[in-house]
Amino acid sequence: MVEGSRTPRVRGSRSVRPIMAVLDLLGRRWMLRILWELRDGPLPFRALRDRCDAVSPSVLNTRLREMRGAALLELHADAGYALTREGEALLSALQPLHAWARRWAASDAGRVAALSAPRPGAAAGAASRPRGARRPRRSP
Amino acid sequence: MVEGSRTPRVRGSRSVRPIMAVLDLLGRRWMLRILWELRDGPLPFRALRDRCDAVSPSVLNTRLREMRGAALLELHADAGYALTREGEALLSALQPLHAWARRWAASDAGRVAALSAPRPGAAAGAASRPRGARRPRRSP
DNA sequence: CGCTATCGCTACGGAATTGGTAGCGCAAGA
DNA sequence: TCTTGCGCTACCAATTCCGTAGCGATAGCG
């Protein structure tokens, strides 16, 4: 390990590369979505919330705070949350992704494929596939 | 609500737009990172795991399965996991992001900003900021 | 053959994050 | 004053993630 039993996700540690930070930042739930929903202009808190399948205000606020901290967006008293220059740049950088998405969806692969979502027991093995290990439960 | 008390994340529902699906898919933890780590060529399970700050094999396998379902990568018996044509295309679409990340990191904003990570009580308000509501504890 | 080394992958159990719901304090309008 | 809407928060249940240990199979070695 690098500095303990638990790696600090991204921040500098072994990878000073900024791309890692961005990958981690955008990898948080709703982050990309929020950015995307703000593409047509500023949106007040609740409107933004509605567009994001009614995310919890808790999470939304957390993401919003993180994004403000990253200077991706700001809160304008009269218009709501709006992307900053940086934020818009990032959104632009995401355009190719949009293009790719269309072609991907058009192919067989993109149908509904793996999008099924990680609903029930997505994390651990959890799959109903009694094949590999068995774990006879031993005492530590 | 649209079709119940809980919206089904992405899939079709109100937004048939493929971009939504992609945004949701890539928004899952480690998804972007895995894609990125595979940029230099195929990587076997454990090597890939090491590059991703030693993610849990559980999660890694889940993500890998999702990506295979989405035809983004395949498992070659001799080389390990490798991006498919689609996967490489997606990676290419992510290039602008890389470019943006560099400039972003160079600015003050990208310093360490909001990257602080969502470690302790990141979700809910949780912040030690007793200002807004108070919640006097009522009976439901 | 027996031993060691890897590989892909899985089963827990506990920790961390996310989702839901109710509501506060504030400001503008009726 | 009453009402409405806004940003934002607390609390708690539900998911998801992490950490660790190990299975079944395969390959090299003596």
What's the mean pLDDT score of chain A? 74
Helix content of chain A: 40-55%
Q: Give the strand content of chain A.
A: 5-15%
β-strand number of chain A? 2
Rounded to an integer, what's the Rg of chain A over CA atoms? 19 Å
> Which oligomeric state applies?
homodimer
The number of distinct helices of chain A, counting runs of at least 4 residues, comes to 6
Summarize the helix and strand pattern of chain A as letters.
Answer: HHHHEEHH
Anisotropy-based shape of chain A: globular
Name the poorly predicted regions of chain A.
1-15, 119-140
Largest sheet of chain A: 2 strands, antiparallel
Walk across the major sheet of chain A and give the strand order: 1-2
Biggest interchain interface, per-side counts:
A-B, 71 and 71 residues
From the N-terminal CA to the C-terminal CA of chain A, the straight-line distance is 23 Å
Tell me the structural class of chain A. mainly alpha
Descriptive account of the structure:
2 copies of one chain form a homodimer. The first copy, chain A, is mostly helical and 140 residues long. Helix content of chain A is 41%, strand content 6%. The first copy, chain A, has 6 helices and 2 strands. Chain A has helices at 18-26, 31-37, 45-51, 57-69, 85-93, 95-106; strands at residues 73-76, 80-83. Chain A has a two-stranded antiparallel sheet with strand order 1-2. The longest helix of chain A is centred in the middle third of the chain and has 13 residues, at 57-69. The first copy, chain A, starts with 17 loop residues before the first helix and ends in a 34-residue tail after the last helix. Residues 1-15 and 119-140 of chain A have low confidence and may be disordered. At the A-B interface, helix 1, helix 2, helix 4, helix 5 and helix 6 of A face helix 1, helix 2, helix 4, helix 5 and helix 6 of B. Chain B binds a DNA duplex (30 and 30 nucleotides) through residues 5-6, 28-30, 44-46, 54-62, 64, 75, 80, 118-127, 129-138, 140.
